[in-house]
Amino acid sequence: MAVVSRTIYDEGPAAKAGGQPDSANPYEAGSQESLDWLEGFTAGEPEPSSTGPDGS
């Protein structure tokens, strides 16, 4: 995914490090800002797999 605002992206991991849940996203759902924030918040997490956790 392309991040438009690096500043907003950087707010995501800062919120996660501060122990906040993903529902703490301060931006309007569906907006680019919200997507950038969530992309930062989930950075480093494994991508979910449609085949399940074991990949089979």
Task: Describe the structure concisely.
By secondary structure, the chain is mainly alpha-helical.
Task: Describe this entry's structure for a reader.
The chain is an all-alpha fold. 39% of the residues lie in helices and 0% in strands. The chain is built from two helices and no strands. The protein has helices at residues 6-17, 32-41. The radius of gyration is 13 Å and the shape is globular. The mean pLDDT is 90.
End-to-end separation in angstroms reads: 26 Å
Average pLDDT score: 90
Number of helices: 2
SSE pattern: HH
The unreliable regions are none
Which value, in Å, is the CA radius of gyration? Answer: 13 Å
Task: Record the SSE blueprint.
Elements: H1 6-17, H2 32-41
Helix pairs in contact: 1-2
Task: Using brief descriptors, characterize the structure shown.
single chain; 56 residues; mainly alpha
